[in-house]
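Reagents: none. Just compute today. histidine kinase.
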Amino acid sequence: MQQSQSDRHSTSSWFTRLRFHCVVFVYILFGLMQTAFAETRLEIDSKNQNNHCTAQIISTQVAKAETDLAVVPQTGWIDVKLPDNWENRWDNYTGSAWYKIVWRSNCSESINNHPFAFVVDRINMAGIVYSNNELIWRDASLVEPLSRSWNKPRYWLLPSSSLKQEHNEILVRVVGVQSQKSGLGVVKIGDVKSITDLHKELVFERRTLFLINLLITMVLGTIGFLIWLFRRQETAFGWFSINSLFWSLFICNTLLTAPFPFTDSLLHARLNIIFLLVYAYTACLFVWRFSHEKFKHLEKTLATFVLLFSLALLLTPDDHLSTVMSIAFLYSSVIYILNCFFIQWIAYKKKKIDIYLLAAVFMLFMVIMLHDLSLMSNSNLESIYWTPFAAPITSLAISFILSWRIARNMRHIEKFNQTLEETVETVTFDLEQSLAKKHHLQLENMRLQERLNLSHELHDGLGGSIVRSMILLDHAENVEKNQVMSMFKLLRSDLRQVIDSGSSIGAKTPESPVMWVAPLRHRFVQIFEEMEIESTWIFSNHWNIKPPPLYCLTLSRVTEEALTNIVKHSDATDVEVSLFENDQNELILEIKDNGHGFEVNAVEKGLHVGLQSMQVRIKRLGGELEITSQSGLTVIRAILPMKE
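Predicted 3D structure written out:
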């Protein structure tokens, strides 16, 4: 076709036209051959249909088994119509019964040339099959625990060597128990192909669909359990998982070919009805929790009924079990149907999409249940139960509900995230504005504080010194050079204090006393080495109580002033500088030298600016400056109180 399409858009040639005609001729020839073969097949099928053999069931009878179960009864045969439930004639009978099916073929040729097969939709509970007294099949167990063939369609090929042209006989010995509708199901006899096809259809409807139902139910139940496990507040899905569990146990009754371990047929039947009771109860709880409803008194009442019925089913004697089972089955069906109606009212009341969908699903379940209940009395093999199709419907519905809820929650989350993002952006902007305003106010406050501190320092320190100097110069007639120099030094010292007070703002305390003294030590050690003065520096590697930056700056100025005086005036050869804390949380700076000393009182009364400056600095911080001096030993000790 690609070449033909290409040629259609190109220049035509005789070769292209010839090839096109050949292709058309081949298609026409192929169509004629196909028509001829079809007519031939129709003729063959018509001929085969004319020669087709059919089977006709003449009679179906049943008789109780004799004491010797292997012997076919000679008397007591009763005509019956299949399917047959022998409880309709033999009340509370547990044992074996023989079914005799007499049939004949309608073949124009020898019956041995046309193989036959027959199918039975159920044998309740177990059985053994003969064709013209030839064994063709038997269940694995014909004694308790019995094999379970009640929902397992079976078919067999009839041995052509034993078939007769006129009458043929099929014998089926059925082993059943009371209250279990024991007997034989519908039997069909015909050619192998038709019986095989019928058997496949029955297996698909009676077993495969139920197996699919079971698998889907288990998967959905597991999903519901996991949802509840990770979100315990989703109690609806917890009840849904329990509901799925008991429905799975109930469905197993249609698939198992042997009873549950350590149970006989009747105990298995008792447990199966209990599973149905719990299934109906948990279905109610699932619907109510899904709809965010609680009916405490009603729930307790239903739970009480489930418990009472369960005890009755377990304790009732075998002779009366059939009545109790029928009542329990009817009760479960009524509760389930009423719940299907009740969810419609809840959906009308709630007016939510997911509850509307759940109500629609349960309405469909109610229709399916009513349909299948009506078929339980109908034995037509062409009747199809709708219950197996409920699982795919449940799967689609639950998937849609979960998807809708997830989508709804995602929309809520997205909306919440969007609102949260907008709120965060607004709050962030407001916070940035507030921080900027606060920072601006802090800067202004710091500037004002610095100005206030500077004004106080200038007024209290430098201003006072200027006033004293002016008074001294005003009253002195002859002022010597040394006195003027002392005045200037005093003013310089006060100016340094003002500068130090301002520079301490924003300063940081050194990490350790060693780091604090390192600059002073480096500077004065060089001077001491030039003057041949031995120096000892005793400092700790850490602070016990970290002092404020102003303390460190004050002690630095005191140390610098004291060491400068030692260099200038003491003629010392040995100096010791130490810093330590005592038990009273006092920081003590101690400076010793072995110089010739001085008169402390005379210096304090004079105009010695350096010592006065040290005293003023220490007293401003609430400390004390102690000075002792004599020939050979001078000690200057600065004591500052520390606070935690």
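The chain has four domains: 2-50, 54-201, 208-412, 507-641.
Action item: order primers for follow-up constructs.
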